[in-house]
Write a structure and sequence with these properties.
Elements (H helix, E strand, L loop, with lengths): L44 H24 L24 H9 L2 H18 L17 H21 L3 H18 L8 H7 L3 H22 L15
Helix pairs in contact: 2-3, 2-7, 4-5, 5-6, 5-7
């Protein structure tokens, strides 16, 4: 075979004399090479290196925080005296804050159950595999679904007077509307960034936003009887 860097596929009437092999690789497929020996495997050492660096940085940060700040420990537990307010660990304060607004069945069973079911079911559906911008395709159809979901969620939160969760939801709705009115060719880098975000980005960002807000409220703004207080007031 001649040393040539040009790969040209042509059509010839004599396939035995000048055979050509053509491989078409689409965006949803990847090349697969089958070999007899398995002496070599694909590996990504740079990913392992990045993970090791991230673990070391996190460990140093945690040790630094532990040396500078004292843990907010209280006195020994007294079974005859229940503290008021009785707060859950910080990672459950968001759920405890939801219990303040919703019935226990909704906040303690239905909402966590739906989250777990979503984590199990969603990977089996082809939801935006190419990770393109949410509103870059079928814009009007997706906007209609978005308006319906956003309106139903807002009405649901208002009916239960869950304003702590309504504010982050409205902020996310506003950002998504900006993304819907933007394009990858927008003059603003921020609008280009929003326009390219897929559905998974918006769902995860809304979930984390709600979690941070509810946890912060339960930590700093709840006093005796789970009443609203300001952090500088104390209790």
């Amino acid at each position: 075979m001649a040393d040539s860097k040009e790969f040209i596929a042509g059509v010839d009437s004599n396939a035995k004399k000048s055979p050509r092999r053509i491989v078409f690789i689409t965006r949803r497929t990847s090349a697969q090479v089958k070999v007899d020996t398995e002496d070599q495997v694909q590996t990504f050492p740079e990913v392992l290196f990045r993970a090791a660096v991230a673990i070391q940085v996190l460990a140093i940060a945690l040790v630094w925080i532990a040396l500078i700040f004292n843990a907010p420990l209280e006195g020994l537990a007294d079974p005859s005296h229940t503290p008021n307010p009785a707060k859950a660990p910080w990672y459950f304060l968001g759920l405890q804050e939801m219990l303040h607004y919703f019935p226990p069945v909704v906040a303690g069973v239905l909402a966590p159950g739906l989250v777990v079911m979503a984590l199990i079911v969603i990977p089996y559906f082809k939801v935006n595999i190419e990770a393109d911008g949410l509103f870059l395709r079928d814009r009007q159809h997706r906007l209609s679904i978005f308006y319906a979901v956003a309106s139903a969620l807002s009405i649901f939160l208002v009916s239960f007077k869950v304003y702590a969760a309504l504010v982050p939801t409205l902020i996310m709705v506003g950002l998504m509307l900006i993304a819907a009115q933007s394009s990858p060719q927008s003059s603003s880098a921020f609008r280009r960034y929003l326009a390219a975000r897929p559905l998974s980005y918006w769902v995860m960002t809304w979930f984390l936003f709600e979690l941070v807000v509810l946890t912060a409220i339960g930590t700093f703004f709840r006093g005796p009887g789970w009443a609203w207080i300001w952090p500088w007031q104390g209790f």
